[in-house]
Here is the input.
Amino acid sequence: MKQTFIYGLYSNRSDEIRYVGKSDNPDKRLIKHICNTKVHVIKNKKLTHKEHWLIKNDFNVKCVILEECNYDVWPEREQFYIEKYDNLTNTAKGGLGGGTIIYTKTYDEVKNWVQSNLDITSKKEWYVYDKQNNLPEFIPANPSTVYKNRGWVSWGDFLGTGRVCDNYLERLSYSEAKRILKPFKLKSATEYCEMYDKGKIPDNIPKKANRYYKDRGWVSWGDFLGNGFVANQLREFYSYDEFKAKVSELGFKTYTSYKQYIKNNKPDIKLPTNPNTVYKDKGWVGWSNMFKSESCS
Here is the structure.
């Protein structure tokens, strides 16, 4: 059974325990407490009782192991020690794995305030906003954690976008998704994700399409988006001799003319964009071997 620790913090001025927590590595956790507090001061964040105590003691604080316990019982043991000491800076009863601020407003109250006062449409935007702005003290930075067992539904419900959690959606088949996406004329996975984050991709098509469709017909992003692009590792190229014959057949006289052809057209996909890489150990000598008029190896 995995073990963890219940620890206490005390200052150099007194051996009185002033904070109780749980961590797999209490010494590193103390360093994180101190670093987080300094960052919160710089960003003018609302400070917890523990953070005020750390500052008051000039961060000269030490950690002591109160108990080593099995992982499945640590919430009860943390609560036990929090109840044992009567002068702690903890403001939560423990057993939740973090947070020293008690949020008294209900999920619906917080959700309604967010939707009425903030124009945020995604989880990503939420965390960017939190870093750049000061949320009211009654709004948690991690609402999905705070309200996990207090009414939380999904980010779509919380922000009012209507987007349903991925786990509850009935997805389109691979072929149906391809048909829907083709008119978008997307060129890459990056462009697809940007469109998805803007809410322009239907909810019944997953953002991480390559993962969802991995065993459901997935070929490649080029196939999925319908742009004809096939990743090099999935393409079958001409042999080196066939490549030289093809170059001669198409009448290329220079390296530049070949590259322009690849760039401006949708040629035979068996012609590589970088033949010097594809044929590196398969006979490649250099462009000068094929184009006597121009040397570019």
User: Anything to note?
Assistant: The first strand starts at residue 3 and ends at 11.
